[in-house]
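Design job #97: recover the sequence.
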Protein backbone atom coordinates (compact mmCIF):
# COMPACT_ATOMS: atom_id res chain seq x y z
CA UNK A 1 0.00 0.00 0.00
CA UNK A 2 1.28 3.45 -0.91
CA UNK A 3 2.14 6.04 1.69
CA UNK A 4 -0.45 8.83 1.86
CA UNK A 5 0.95 12.17 0.73
CA UNK A 6 -0.53 15.39 2.13
CA UNK A 7 0.12 19.00 1.17
CA UNK A 8 -1.60 22.38 1.37
CA UNK A 9 -1.47 24.96 -1.42
CA UNK A 10 -2.40 28.59 -1.78
CA UNK A 11 -3.98 30.85 -0.94
CA UNK A 12 -5.24 31.15 -4.51
CA UNK A 13 -7.63 33.56 -6.11
CA UNK A 14 -10.08 31.98 -8.56
CA UNK A 15 -7.95 32.29 -11.72
CA UNK A 16 -4.94 30.75 -9.99
CA UNK A 17 -7.09 28.01 -8.47
CA UNK A 18 -8.30 27.12 -11.99
CA UNK A 19 -4.67 26.93 -13.19
CA UNK A 20 -3.80 24.82 -10.14
CA UNK A 21 -6.65 22.44 -11.00
CA UNK A 22 -5.28 22.19 -14.56
CA UNK A 23 -1.81 21.40 -13.19
CA UNK A 24 -3.29 18.65 -11.04
CA UNK A 25 -5.36 17.33 -13.97
CA UNK A 26 -2.22 16.89 -16.06
CA UNK A 27 -0.76 14.62 -13.37
CA UNK A 28 -3.75 12.36 -12.71
CA UNK A 29 -4.22 8.89 -14.18
CA UNK A 30 -7.28 8.21 -16.32
CA UNK A 31 -8.95 5.98 -13.73
CA UNK A 32 -9.14 7.95 -10.51
CA UNK A 33 -11.65 8.89 -7.81
CA UNK A 34 -11.45 12.46 -6.51
CA UNK A 35 -13.31 13.75 -3.48
CA UNK A 36 -13.94 17.49 -3.29
CA UNK A 37 -14.79 18.74 0.17
CA UNK A 38 -15.43 22.17 1.61
CA UNK A 39 -18.18 24.44 2.81
CA UNK A 40 -21.00 25.60 0.56
CA UNK A 41 -19.55 28.16 -1.85
CA UNK A 42 -15.94 27.21 -1.14
CA UNK A 43 -15.16 26.58 -4.82
CA UNK A 44 -15.65 22.84 -5.38
CA UNK A 45 -17.47 23.30 -8.69
CA UNK A 46 -14.94 25.93 -9.78
CA UNK A 47 -12.15 23.45 -9.07
CA UNK A 48 -14.06 20.75 -10.96
CA UNK A 49 -14.37 23.14 -13.93
CA UNK A 50 -10.59 23.62 -13.92
CA UNK A 51 -10.04 19.86 -14.00
CA UNK A 52 -12.67 19.08 -16.65
CA UNK A 53 -11.63 21.91 -18.96
CA UNK A 54 -7.98 20.89 -18.62
CA UNK A 55 -8.98 17.46 -19.92
CA UNK A 56 -10.48 19.05 -23.04
CA UNK A 57 -14.06 20.11 -22.33
CA UNK A 58 -14.62 23.48 -24.03
CA UNK A 59 -18.16 24.35 -22.91
CA UNK A 60 -19.55 25.38 -19.55
CA UNK A 61 -19.16 23.00 -16.63
CA UNK A 62 -22.48 22.87 -14.80
CA UNK A 63 -22.94 22.00 -11.18
CA UNK A 64 -24.74 18.64 -11.08
CA UNK A 65 -26.56 19.65 -7.88
CA UNK A 66 -30.01 18.81 -9.25
CA UNK A 67 -29.03 15.96 -11.59
CA UNK A 68 -26.56 14.29 -9.16
CA UNK A 69 -24.17 13.42 -12.01
CA UNK A 70 -22.98 15.17 -15.14
CA UNK A 71 -21.05 12.97 -17.62
CA UNK A 72 -18.31 14.32 -19.90
CA UNK A 73 -17.08 12.03 -22.67
CA UNK A 74 -13.80 13.60 -23.74
CA UNK A 75 -11.05 12.54 -26.11
CA UNK A 76 -8.63 11.81 -23.25
CA UNK A 77 -11.06 10.29 -20.71
CA UNK A 78 -14.62 9.91 -19.51
CA UNK A 79 -15.42 12.02 -16.46
CA UNK A 80 -18.39 11.68 -14.13
CA UNK A 81 -18.92 14.79 -12.01
CA UNK A 82 -21.11 14.08 -8.99
CA UNK A 83 -22.64 16.56 -6.55
CA UNK A 84 -24.22 14.62 -3.70
CA UNK A 85 -25.30 17.64 -1.64
CA UNK A 86 -29.04 17.08 -2.16
CA UNK A 87 -28.89 13.32 -1.67
CA UNK A 88 -31.34 12.25 1.03
CA UNK A 89 -29.73 8.81 1.36
CA UNK A 90 -26.76 7.03 -0.26
CA UNK A 91 -29.33 4.44 -1.43
CA UNK A 92 -30.49 6.99 -4.03
CA UNK A 93 -27.21 6.36 -5.86
CA UNK A 94 -28.37 2.82 -6.54
CA UNK A 95 -31.49 4.16 -8.29
CA UNK A 96 -29.43 6.22 -10.75
CA UNK A 97 -27.09 3.30 -11.48
CA UNK A 98 -24.05 4.96 -9.94
CA UNK A 99 -22.32 1.63 -9.37
CA UNK A 100 -21.91 1.39 -13.17
CA UNK A 101 -20.17 4.76 -13.24
CA UNK A 102 -17.72 3.63 -10.58
CA UNK A 103 -17.13 0.23 -12.20
CA UNK A 104 -15.82 1.79 -15.42
CA UNK A 105 -12.27 2.91 -16.06
CA UNK A 106 -13.19 6.55 -15.76
CA UNK A 107 -12.55 9.61 -13.66
CA UNK A 108 -15.04 10.35 -10.88
CA UNK A 109 -15.15 13.78 -9.28
CA UNK A 110 -17.38 13.66 -6.21
CA UNK A 111 -18.52 16.80 -4.40
CA UNK A 112 -19.98 16.25 -0.91
CA UNK A 113 -18.69 12.64 -0.69
CA UNK A 114 -19.87 12.27 2.92
CA UNK A 115 -23.45 12.23 1.58
CA UNK A 116 -22.65 9.03 -0.34
CA UNK A 117 -20.78 7.25 2.44
CA UNK A 118 -21.06 3.49 2.25
CA UNK A 119 -21.87 3.49 -1.46
CA UNK A 120 -19.12 5.42 -3.24
CA UNK A 121 -15.57 4.09 -3.65
CA UNK A 122 -12.71 5.37 -1.54
CA UNK A 123 -10.89 8.43 -2.84
CA UNK A 124 -7.54 8.21 -4.58
CA UNK A 125 -7.17 11.96 -4.06
CA UNK A 126 -9.02 14.01 -1.47
CA UNK A 127 -9.22 17.75 -2.18
CA UNK A 128 -10.38 20.09 0.59
CA UNK A 129 -11.04 23.71 -0.32
CA UNK A 130 -11.20 26.27 2.49
CA UNK A 131 -11.88 29.98 2.49
CA UNK A 132 -8.70 31.90 3.19
CA UNK A 133 -10.41 35.25 2.64
CA UNK A 134 -13.44 36.49 0.72
CA UNK A 135 -11.58 36.13 -2.59
CA UNK A 136 -8.90 33.50 -1.90
CA UNK A 137 -8.96 29.79 -1.16
CA UNK A 138 -6.59 27.30 0.42
CA UNK A 139 -6.43 23.86 -1.23
CA UNK A 140 -5.33 20.78 0.73
CA UNK A 141 -4.63 17.52 -1.05
CA UNK A 142 -4.10 14.03 0.28
CA UNK A 143 -3.30 11.24 -2.13
CA UNK A 144 -2.91 7.50 -1.82
CA UNK A 145 -1.78 7.16 -5.46
CA UNK A 146 1.90 6.99 -4.60
CA UNK A 147 4.69 9.39 -5.48
CA UNK A 148 5.46 7.59 -8.74
CA UNK A 149 1.92 8.42 -9.96
CA UNK A 150 1.17 11.77 -8.31
CA UNK A 151 4.13 13.59 -6.81
CA UNK A 152 2.82 16.44 -4.67
CA UNK A 153 6.34 17.94 -4.55
CA UNK A 154 5.94 18.76 -8.27
CA UNK A 155 2.71 20.61 -7.52
CA UNK A 156 4.37 22.40 -4.61
CA UNK A 157 7.11 23.66 -6.92
CA UNK A 158 4.49 24.93 -9.38
CA UNK A 159 2.43 26.59 -6.63
CA UNK A 160 5.47 28.40 -5.27
CA UNK A 161 5.82 30.18 -8.62
CA UNK A 162 2.28 31.57 -8.42
CA UNK A 163 1.03 34.74 -6.79
CA UNK A 164 -2.20 35.05 -4.81
CA UNK A 165 -3.11 38.01 -7.01
CA UNK A 166 -3.35 35.66 -10.00
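Job complete. Output follows.
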Amino acid sequence: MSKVQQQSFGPFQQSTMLRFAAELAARLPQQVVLYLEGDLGAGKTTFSRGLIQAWGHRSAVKSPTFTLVEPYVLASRTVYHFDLYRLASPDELEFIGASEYFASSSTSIIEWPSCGAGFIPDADVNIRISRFSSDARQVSLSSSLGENILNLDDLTAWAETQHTAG
